[in-house]
Structures are given as C-alpha cells and as structure tokens.
Amino acid sequence: MVKQDRAIRTRRTILVAAARIFEERGYQAATISEILAAADVTKGALYFHFPSKEHLAQGVLHEQDQQLPIPDRACKIQQIVDTVLLQAYRLQTDPMVRAGVRLSLDQQAHGLDRSGPFVRWAEVVTELLEKAQTQGELLPHVQPKETADVMVGSFAGVQAMSQAMCNYQDLLNRVAALLRHLLPSVVLSSVLTSADLTESRGAAVFEELQALATSARRP
User: What is the pTM of this model?
Assistant: First the structure.
C-alpha cells in the first residue's frame, strides 16, 4: 500500500510538472529533460509511468476527464450550463486544465492525437441534450449531436480568444455571453427563464463540489 501511494504521488508530481512545461512551451518545444528537472524525479521513475512525451501529453489531456461530472440537476439545461461554466472557472484557476486546453488547441503538436477532449466533451453535452430533449426542454428542431458539436467548438473558440487577449481573465464573462447567445436558439424560453447563466455560476458550482468532497471524506 505504501509503494502504491508513493507511485500515485510520483505520477501526479510528474503530471503537474509536465502540465507546467507544456503550458509554458507548447508540445513541440517542451522536452523530457525540462519535465524531469521540473518534477525532480529520476528518468527511470518518469519512464515507468510515461514511456514518451506523447504519453505525458495524453496524461495531461486525460486529467480534464476526471473533473467533468457534476451532480444531476432536475433541469438538464442548467446541468449543461453548470458543466460549461465550471470548466471555464477551472481553466482560470487550475494549471492542469489550462495545460490540457493548451495541448488540445495546439496546432503545432504534430503527431499528438488532440481529438480526445473534443470527443469526450461532445459526448457529455450530447447525452445531456438528449435528456433535456426527453424532458421537453428543447425546441423541436434541435438535433442533440449537431448542437453539442456547435457548443463544444464555440467554447473552444472563446477559450482561444480569451487566452490570446488577456490570459483567460475575461473567460467567465465571455462564456456566459456565449451561452446567452447560443441557448435561445435551442432551448425553450420558459426553461431559460429559470436557468442561472451568470458568470459567477462556475465558482458556485466549484464550491458545491468542494463541499461534497469534504463531506464524503468525513467518517
């Protein structure tokens, strides 16, 4: 058990270091030597967990998946909003998420499969839209998969714009604006009236999850 815990901590240390280097340098420019120095681990320890730079990058990309789920909401549109705004909040506050986004949008990352986050985000949003459709929350013309692709692509574009212009400082404002413009074309107005689309929603959901995690750890 002690060895297993140590291995988990070492793996996390390496991932955090890799995330910092990938965010600062990009995939192509980042080197294993830089990541080793930042992680302060042996080459053997690094290669035990991640056989190559590509495996390291995929590890960072995969970390985003561990943070997607939020508690079920009665209103599935609110659940979509909460999921999107929470990711925007994490992008502002979590270096691992920022590094994953940098990698997924890095067109110079030749040889790296960057499709994973887009595919998984589209799957999450499609499933929630299908549930919203079943509950009668969507307009009749909506095709969940098509709408999910539009939402994921739009979110990616807003992320890239915010990063380029002010290093994500206005991201929550931009994402809230995106939702206010996009959702009326797919959601019944009666549903949107009761949904919270404010930019502070991401932080509120994050605090909710932190409270749930703390409660779960108590004996």
Answer: 0.84
